[in-house]
Amino acid sequence: MSCIHLLLKSNKSIVFYFFPFTNQRGKKKSNWEVPNGGMEVNGDDGEPAAKSPAEEEMTTFSRHNFGNSGNTDDGFSVTIIENMKEEYGLFVWPCSIVLAEYIWQQKSRFTGATVVELGAGTSLPGLVAAKVGAVVTLTDDSSRVEVVTHMRRQCDLNDIKCKIRGLTWGVWDAQTFSLCPNIILGADVLYDSCAFDDLFATVTFLLQNCPSSVFITTYHNRRCRDDPTPEGNVSSDCFKPCVVGIT
Protein backbone atom coordinates (compact mmCIF):
# COMPACT_ATOMS: atom_id res chain seq x y z
CA MET A 1 0.00 0.00 0.00
CA SER A 2 1.37 3.40 -0.94
CA CYS A 3 0.48 6.76 0.56
CA ILE A 4 0.59 10.40 -0.54
CA HIS A 5 0.21 13.08 2.13
CA LEU A 6 -0.57 16.66 1.06
CA LEU A 7 -0.67 19.68 3.38
CA LEU A 8 -3.00 22.39 2.11
CA LYS A 9 -2.55 26.14 2.62
CA SER A 10 -5.49 26.02 5.03
CA ASN A 11 -3.43 23.69 7.27
CA LYS A 12 -5.86 20.90 6.51
CA SER A 13 -4.38 17.67 5.22
CA ILE A 14 -5.57 15.32 2.53
CA VAL A 15 -4.26 11.77 2.59
CA PHE A 16 -4.55 9.38 -0.35
CA TYR A 17 -3.97 5.66 0.27
CA PHE A 18 -3.63 3.51 -2.84
CA PHE A 19 -4.43 -0.19 -2.61
CA PRO A 20 -3.56 -3.06 -4.98
CA PHE A 21 -6.42 -4.45 -7.01
CA THR A 22 -6.59 -7.52 -9.21
CA ASN A 23 -8.58 -7.50 -12.41
CA GLN A 24 -11.07 -10.21 -13.28
CA ARG A 25 -8.50 -12.12 -15.32
CA GLY A 26 -6.71 -12.93 -12.08
CA LYS A 27 -3.26 -11.95 -13.36
CA LYS A 28 -2.31 -10.34 -10.07
CA LYS A 29 -2.81 -11.94 -6.68
CA SER A 30 -3.72 -9.53 -3.92
CA ASN A 31 -6.11 -8.96 -1.04
CA TRP A 32 -8.43 -7.21 -3.47
CA GLU A 33 -9.21 -10.31 -5.50
CA VAL A 34 -12.91 -11.16 -5.49
CA PRO A 35 -13.83 -14.59 -6.96
CA ASN A 36 -15.61 -14.19 -10.29
CA GLY A 37 -15.35 -10.45 -9.93
CA GLY A 38 -17.34 -10.79 -6.72
CA MET A 39 -20.44 -11.58 -8.73
CA GLU A 40 -22.66 -14.60 -9.27
CA VAL A 41 -25.57 -14.04 -11.60
CA ASN A 42 -28.54 -16.08 -10.46
CA GLY A 43 -31.16 -17.78 -12.54
CA ASP A 44 -34.43 -19.24 -11.27
CA ASP A 45 -33.54 -19.20 -7.61
CA GLY A 46 -36.62 -17.71 -6.04
CA GLU A 47 -35.63 -14.08 -6.46
CA PRO A 48 -38.55 -11.69 -7.11
CA ALA A 49 -39.55 -11.35 -10.74
CA ALA A 50 -39.58 -8.09 -12.65
CA LYS A 51 -42.87 -6.31 -13.00
CA SER A 52 -43.15 -6.42 -16.80
CA PRO A 53 -41.67 -8.45 -19.71
CA ALA A 54 -39.73 -5.41 -20.93
CA GLU A 55 -38.31 -4.75 -17.46
CA GLU A 56 -37.64 -8.46 -16.93
CA GLU A 57 -35.52 -8.54 -20.08
CA MET A 58 -33.26 -5.85 -18.64
CA THR A 59 -33.23 -7.02 -14.99
CA THR A 60 -30.73 -9.41 -13.45
CA PHE A 61 -29.73 -10.39 -9.92
CA SER A 62 -26.13 -10.64 -8.79
CA ARG A 63 -24.85 -12.09 -5.53
CA HIS A 64 -21.68 -10.67 -4.01
CA ASN A 65 -19.88 -12.78 -1.43
CA PHE A 66 -17.70 -11.42 1.37
CA GLY A 67 -15.56 -13.67 3.54
CA ASN A 68 -17.06 -17.11 4.12
CA SER A 69 -20.62 -16.41 3.04
CA GLY A 70 -21.69 -19.86 4.22
CA ASN A 71 -20.79 -18.90 7.79
CA THR A 72 -22.71 -15.89 9.10
CA ASP A 73 -20.03 -15.36 11.76
CA ASP A 74 -17.29 -14.96 9.15
CA GLY A 75 -18.96 -13.59 6.05
CA PHE A 76 -22.17 -12.88 4.21
CA SER A 77 -23.56 -12.25 0.75
CA VAL A 78 -25.43 -9.28 -0.67
CA THR A 79 -27.87 -9.67 -3.55
CA ILE A 80 -28.20 -6.75 -5.95
CA ILE A 81 -31.00 -6.05 -8.41
CA GLU A 82 -29.49 -4.65 -11.59
CA ASN A 83 -31.22 -2.99 -14.51
CA MET A 84 -28.95 -3.14 -17.53
CA LYS A 85 -30.79 -0.36 -19.35
CA GLU A 86 -27.92 2.05 -19.90
CA GLU A 87 -29.63 5.31 -19.02
CA TYR A 88 -30.63 3.99 -15.60
CA GLY A 89 -27.07 3.32 -14.50
CA LEU A 90 -28.47 0.70 -12.14
CA PHE A 91 -25.75 -1.90 -12.48
CA VAL A 92 -22.74 -2.72 -10.35
CA TRP A 93 -19.62 -1.11 -11.78
CA PRO A 94 -16.22 -2.53 -10.76
CA CYS A 95 -15.49 0.50 -8.55
CA SER A 96 -18.44 -0.49 -6.34
CA ILE A 97 -17.03 -3.98 -5.92
CA VAL A 98 -13.62 -2.59 -4.98
CA LEU A 99 -15.10 -0.20 -2.40
CA ALA A 100 -17.38 -2.89 -0.96
CA GLU A 101 -14.42 -5.25 -0.59
CA TYR A 102 -12.43 -2.48 1.11
CA ILE A 103 -15.28 -2.03 3.62
CA TRP A 104 -15.30 -5.76 4.31
CA GLN A 105 -11.52 -5.86 4.77
CA GLN A 106 -11.69 -2.81 7.08
CA LYS A 107 -14.93 -3.79 8.81
CA SER A 108 -13.67 -2.90 12.29
CA ARG A 109 -13.41 0.70 11.09
CA PHE A 110 -17.04 0.72 9.98
CA THR A 111 -18.70 -1.07 12.89
CA GLY A 112 -20.72 1.54 14.78
CA ALA A 113 -19.81 4.32 12.34
CA THR A 114 -22.31 6.73 10.82
CA VAL A 115 -21.99 6.37 7.05
CA VAL A 116 -23.41 8.31 4.10
CA GLU A 117 -23.05 6.93 0.58
CA LEU A 118 -23.21 9.53 -2.19
CA GLY A 119 -24.48 8.56 -5.64
CA ALA A 120 -25.33 5.15 -4.22
CA GLY A 121 -27.23 3.68 -7.19
CA THR A 122 -27.20 -0.06 -6.60
CA SER A 123 -25.79 0.69 -3.12
CA LEU A 124 -23.41 -2.27 -2.77
CA PRO A 125 -20.82 -0.42 -0.62
CA GLY A 126 -23.48 1.07 1.65
CA LEU A 127 -25.21 -2.27 2.08
CA VAL A 128 -21.93 -3.94 3.02
CA ALA A 129 -21.25 -1.15 5.52
CA ALA A 130 -24.67 -1.77 7.08
CA LYS A 131 -23.95 -5.50 7.19
CA VAL A 132 -20.80 -4.94 9.24
CA GLY A 133 -22.62 -2.73 11.74
CA ALA A 134 -22.61 0.83 10.41
CA VAL A 135 -25.59 3.19 10.58
CA VAL A 136 -26.03 3.94 6.88
CA THR A 137 -27.81 6.60 4.86
CA LEU A 138 -28.00 5.86 1.13
CA THR A 139 -28.35 8.89 -1.13
CA ASP A 140 -28.68 9.61 -4.83
CA ASP A 141 -29.94 12.40 -7.06
CA SER A 142 -33.35 13.43 -5.72
CA SER A 143 -34.62 14.00 -9.27
CA ARG A 144 -34.07 10.35 -10.18
CA VAL A 145 -37.10 8.81 -8.51
CA GLU A 146 -36.49 5.39 -10.06
CA VAL A 147 -33.02 5.23 -8.48
CA VAL A 148 -34.27 6.19 -5.02
CA THR A 149 -37.00 3.55 -5.34
CA HIS A 150 -34.37 1.05 -6.47
CA MET A 151 -32.32 1.68 -3.31
CA ARG A 152 -35.35 0.82 -1.17
CA ARG A 153 -35.78 -2.43 -3.10
CA GLN A 154 -32.14 -3.35 -2.46
CA CYS A 155 -32.60 -2.86 1.29
CA ASP A 156 -35.83 -4.87 1.35
CA LEU A 157 -34.31 -7.70 -0.68
CA ASN A 158 -31.36 -8.03 1.71
CA ASP A 159 -33.38 -7.33 4.89
CA ILE A 160 -31.08 -4.40 5.71
CA LYS A 161 -32.20 -1.22 7.44
CA CYS A 162 -30.79 1.96 5.89
CA LYS A 163 -32.10 5.48 5.63
CA ILE A 164 -32.91 6.43 2.04
CA ARG A 165 -32.65 10.06 0.93
CA GLY A 166 -32.66 12.01 -2.29
CA LEU A 167 -29.57 14.21 -2.25
CA THR A 168 -28.55 16.27 -5.25
CA TRP A 169 -24.93 17.42 -5.13
CA GLY A 170 -24.60 21.16 -4.68
CA VAL A 171 -28.22 21.58 -3.56
CA TRP A 172 -28.64 22.72 0.03
CA ASP A 173 -31.69 21.71 2.02
CA ALA A 174 -32.58 20.69 5.56
CA GLN A 175 -31.84 17.02 4.87
CA THR A 176 -28.31 17.80 3.72
CA PHE A 177 -27.67 20.11 6.67
CA SER A 178 -28.75 17.39 9.11
CA LEU A 179 -26.15 14.87 7.90
CA CYS A 180 -23.07 14.40 10.08
CA PRO A 181 -21.36 11.18 9.00
CA ASN A 182 -18.11 9.71 10.30
CA ILE A 183 -17.50 8.20 6.86
CA ILE A 184 -18.61 9.40 3.43
CA LEU A 185 -18.59 6.80 0.65
CA GLY A 186 -18.58 7.38 -3.10
CA ALA A 187 -17.98 4.62 -5.66
CA ASP A 188 -17.03 5.94 -9.12
CA VAL A 189 -18.50 9.38 -8.39
CA LEU A 190 -15.73 11.14 -10.35
CA TYR A 191 -17.03 10.03 -13.74
CA ASP A 192 -18.38 13.40 -14.94
CA SER A 193 -16.11 16.43 -14.73
CA CYS A 194 -19.15 18.71 -15.09
CA ALA A 195 -20.36 17.50 -11.69
CA PHE A 196 -17.03 17.95 -9.86
CA ASP A 197 -17.81 21.36 -8.38
CA ASP A 198 -21.16 20.25 -6.98
CA LEU A 199 -19.75 16.95 -5.72
CA PHE A 200 -16.81 18.53 -3.92
CA ALA A 201 -19.00 21.29 -2.50
CA THR A 202 -21.20 18.61 -0.95
CA VAL A 203 -18.26 16.52 0.25
CA THR A 204 -16.52 19.58 1.71
CA PHE A 205 -19.65 20.57 3.61
CA LEU A 206 -20.06 17.07 5.06
CA LEU A 207 -16.38 16.89 6.05
CA GLN A 208 -16.57 20.26 7.76
CA ASN A 209 -19.90 19.43 9.41
CA CYS A 210 -18.22 16.48 11.11
CA PRO A 211 -14.51 17.38 11.49
CA SER A 212 -13.38 13.83 12.28
CA SER A 213 -14.95 12.42 9.11
CA VAL A 214 -13.25 11.00 6.01
CA PHE A 215 -14.29 10.66 2.38
CA ILE A 216 -13.59 7.23 0.91
CA THR A 217 -13.91 6.83 -2.84
CA THR A 218 -12.89 4.51 -5.66
CA TYR A 219 -11.80 6.13 -8.89
CA HIS A 220 -11.69 4.64 -12.37
CA ASN A 221 -9.28 6.19 -14.85
CA ARG A 222 -11.41 6.18 -17.97
CA ARG A 223 -8.47 7.17 -20.12
CA CYS A 224 -7.24 3.59 -19.84
CA ARG A 225 -7.43 1.66 -23.08
CA ASP A 226 -9.12 -1.30 -21.43
CA ASP A 227 -12.41 0.47 -20.76
CA PRO A 228 -14.82 -1.66 -18.71
CA THR A 229 -18.42 -2.62 -19.21
CA PRO A 230 -20.57 -3.94 -16.36
CA GLU A 231 -19.60 -7.50 -17.40
CA GLY A 232 -16.13 -6.83 -18.82
CA ASN A 233 -12.57 -7.07 -17.66
CA VAL A 234 -10.49 -4.09 -16.66
CA SER A 235 -6.83 -3.26 -16.23
CA SER A 236 -5.64 -3.02 -12.64
CA ASP A 237 -4.06 0.32 -13.58
CA CYS A 238 -7.55 1.74 -14.17
CA PHE A 239 -8.37 1.68 -10.46
CA LYS A 240 -7.16 4.05 -7.78
CA PRO A 241 -9.02 3.14 -4.58
CA CYS A 242 -8.17 5.81 -2.05
CA VAL A 243 -9.05 7.25 1.32
CA VAL A 244 -9.31 11.04 1.45
CA GLY A 245 -9.47 12.70 4.86
CA ILE A 246 -9.44 16.28 6.09
CA THR A 247 -8.15 16.71 9.64
TrEMBL record:
GO terms for molecular function: methyltransferase activity. Keywords: Methyltransferase, S-adenosyl-L-methionine, Transferase. GO terms for biological process: methylation. Pfam families: Methyltransf_16. It comes from the Eukaryota. The keyword Methyltransferase applies. Residues 33-52 are annotated as: Disordered. Belongs to the methyltransferase superfamily. METTL23 family. This is Methyltransferase-like protein 23 isoform X2.
